[in-house]
Amino acid sequence: MVKFSKKVFKIKLQKSESMKFPIDCEDDFNSALLFWLRRFVRAKLNSLSNKELKEPKILQEIILKLTADTKDINELELLVKQARNAGLTGINTYFIPLRKLYDMLTFQKLYSMKQIDEELLSDFLASSTGGLSDASKKNHRMAILSFFLYIDRQNEEDGKSHVYGIELKQWGGIVGVKGQKLPEFMNENELKRFLDAIETCSFKSAALRNRLIVKFIIYTGIRVSEALGLKIRDVTEEKDCLVLRIRGKGNKYRVVLIKRSLVEKELKEHIDASLPNKDGLLFCNRNGTRLTQAYVSRIVEQMLAIAGVRKEKNGAHMLRHTFATLLYHRRKDIVLVQEALGHTSLNTSRIYTHFDSSKLKEAANVAEEFTKGKA
Q1: pTM of the entire structure?
Q2: Enzyme catalytic residues
Q3: Which CATH superfamily, name and number, covers 188-359?
């Protein structure tokens, strides 16, 4: 932990919060860019919603370190990961695109922050977001806009500021784009192998807990963050189902159901064996604190390897896509998909209709009829 005397800390804190700095505030470009990234991350950590914050002391230490200094981009990235694990998950939305930007700009060997312009940033977005979903592209654009707007407001030298005025209105990655990247999912045969792997996969510890987390996600389609946020009191019984009270995006609550026969025995054993934790979490680590999404993704990757299933994206979020896709295949009800997944907009759910090949087979049959001369 960084230590200052009260007097030194007060001076540094006042300088950090109230003073403005020249756009090229360091001796070289790389250091200046890192300086502004560090200040921007600190500002975001103070402004993001802290409703999911589980480790306030860790966040305080991180902010203190950001107030002092960071030696390089890797140390800054480590602090961001620590903040995310402490509960400020939204920081990744900003930092991941900006880390990519840092790598690109330092590779360019610029000599001044003033060399950065809209054309350079548009080139960066075009080259770094290929293959990403529309949502991810918008997140990249938002992060860039937020960062340079922050610099516009915070830099000053001789009473004047350097204003970037970045808008990125003409960036082709956002304007006019109507398509969506199709998400990865398991077909029914792959899913069967995966479910078999859930039962046979051995873990170094917490096997029962890990299997239960994965089952909750694959059988209900809830997000990983929603599963990890479940508390014991959020699970109730209703006839042959368990009712899960889910807090989703934007702190909006919804209810999902899961058949008791699928998880009831394991759930009871898990609750009976669980160590108490102050937040009443259904799933926690040995210290009684919340598990990370990265940990759950590693569990899923291990199970997929055992099942012999390989996808471009093997993370736990792929289980949600699998649930939604098979739900639409079996019921052909897009509104049901919307309600089950907690989508605000029906358009978000429509992505899963693209996996329905029944209509496409009709088109293929017509093409075959043409070649055979059928009327």
Answers
A1: 0.57
A2: 223, 249, 317, 320, 343, 352
A3: Intergrase catalytic core (1.10.443.10)
